[in-house]
Design goal:
Blueprint lengths: L19 H7 L10 E5 L1 H12 L4 H5 L3 E5 L5 H5 L5 H10 L2 E11 L3 E5 L2 E5 H6 L11 H12 L6 E7 L9 H4 L111 H4 L21 E2 L2 H4 L2 E7 L21 E7 L4 H13 L11 E13 L7 E3 L2 E3 L4 E13 L14
Parallel strand pairs: 1-2
Antiparallel strand pairs: 3-4, 3-13, 5-8, 5-11, 6-7, 6-10, 8-9, 9-10, 10-13, 11-12
Helix pairs in contact: 1-2, 7-11
């Protein structure tokens, strides 16, 4: 359609393996001459392409290249959120060339791993419905319903600690490191133009046990990800110091029959050393600055405190009475996670904010019934109106998983290690092509 009907000049790159899209986009020459990038696939294809786009040395110019998505994958949450529901609509969107700013989030994990997200970060129930039912793919879509029944009726909770930088607070203009006396040979965090200038690291006491035996590291310390080890690794920075063991001592209950036990990071059925597994992290010498995270004086906390008074100014600790019984924990940018899952109905992709949606359970029969009803309401987004669900807007997030290997930390549908995780939103960093008539606005309220 684009070439034969619209008369556009089209260069086609077919992916041959996991993370090939990352390599293709990262290696594109003459990026200034590229008018648009169209990803034909699902959310995973866009995720891979985004890693390549923002890990380039010229990431600022690359981020200005608009992208579109043609929904041919299994989830297609990004396409649904942008009003593109089929390949014909995608082709029409490209020809109209209507651009809209798109927020992107950086996620940091030890040791120097950096990922870029467009959709969501998940932990707990929704992670297990996705990654934890991979062994039930033969069931088709019903696997998610079965997994949901097992999770909710089992009354499972996934303890964590989390702190947010509220959406009502502005991005800090002056960092704590700049307020203190510092060696002027060190780069200023305030004027940071890339992660090279954002000196965030772990304190010596946080440097811990060896890497999970299922993870492999190269000579620079890069961790192989879940879906491949070739192509998109870049030189490792000293962004977060040494990686701790992915396993923790907080595992308590066994998983149910319907949902596999989570691995704290890499899935047990993936042999990374054989070159078959793993999310490929952007180790991140290049990329957008991190003013909120760098405002903590250049050293990110290895663990979150149990009291608000111990947090740096501006950060808000989620109450322990809720996080200790957390069941549903998701940070969202887009409204849809899939075509039939409007998990964030009030989300906007260009407001510079993400929504953190949480729910907890006591395991009582009433809570289990409420949990089942909540899952049913996620199709149209009405679950956010339930009293057991809380939504808050944020600009940054710190998450400490405390559930051992019973669940996964999932970024745009890709599982990573259950380690300390730091997220910061970059307002309007990228440009998405959207169809005429599409509006970036919350779901209309029912009357």
């Amino acid at each position: 359609l684009l070439r034969d009907v619209a008369g556009l000049s089209v260069e086609v790159h077919a992916t041959a393996s996991k993370h090939h899209a990352t390599q293709i986009v990262r290696d594109l020459s003459n990026i200034d001459k590229v008018d648009a990038i169209l990803y034909v696939g699902g959310d995973g294809t866009v995720f891979e392409g985004l890693q390549g786009l923002l890990s380039r040395p010229d990431w600022e110019r690359a981020a200005a290249v608009p992208f579109a998505t043609c929904p041919t994958g299994s989830g297609n949450g990004l396409a649904a959120s942008l009003g593109v529901f089929d390949p014909v609509a995608a082709a029409f969107t490209v020809t109209r060339r209507r651009q809209h700013p798109m927020d992107v989030a950086s996620v940091l994990q030890p040791q120097g791993s950096r990922y870029f997200l467009l959709l969501s970060l998940a932990y707990g129930l929704m992670s297990n419905l996705d990654i934890g039912t991979e062994h039930l793919r033969w069931m088709g879509e019903p696997r998610f319903s079965w997994g949901g029944l097992c999770e909710v009726l089992g009354g499972r909770t996934y303890p964590l600690r989390a702190a947010v930088w509220p959406g009502a607070l502005p991005v800090p203009r002056e960092t704590m490191a700049n307020k203190a006396t510092q060696d002027r040979s060190e780069p200023s965090l305030l004027s940071a133009a890339s992660p090279l200038d954002v000196r965030v690291s772990w304190p010596p006491e946080a440097l811990g046990a060896p890497v999970n035996s299922k993870s492999s590291s190269n000579s620079n310390g890069n961790r192989a990800g879940r879906e491949g080890t070739e192509g998109a690794h870049t030189e490792t920075s000293s962004l977060l110091g040494h990686q701790k063991s992915a396993k923790t001592a907080h595992s308590s209950s066994e998983p149910g029959a319907g949902v596999q036990q989570g691995s704290a990071g890499l899935r047990e059925d993936v042999d990374v050393e054989a070159g078959q597994g793993g999310v490929l992290p952007c180790s991140g010498l290049q990329g957008p600055p991190l003013p909120i995270l760098s405002a903590m004086g250049g050293c990110l906390p290895s663990h979150l405190p149990s009291t608000q008074s111990e947090l740096p100014p501006g950060w808000k600790l989620l109450p322990e009475e809720k996080t200790s019984k957390a069941q549903y924990f998701m940070a969202h940018n887009t409204q849809y996670l899939a075509l039939n899952a409007r998990l964030n109905p009030n989300g906007m992709v260009s407001d510079g904010l993400w929504e953190l949606i949480t729910a907890q359970t006591s395991g009582s029969c009433i809570d289990k019934m409420r949990g089942l009803y909540m899952l049913l309401q996620t199709e149209n987004g009405d679950h956010v109106n339930m009293d057991i669900v809380e939504t808050q807007q944020m600009r940054a997030l710190m998450l400490e998983p405390l559930s051992g290997d019973r669940t996964w930390t999932v970024l745009d549908g890709e599982a990573v290690d259950n380690l300390m995780t730091y997220l910061e939103v970059h307002p309007g960093l990228c440009r998405a092509l959207v169809p005429p008539g599409w509006a970036d606005e919350p779901k209309p309220q029912d009357t």
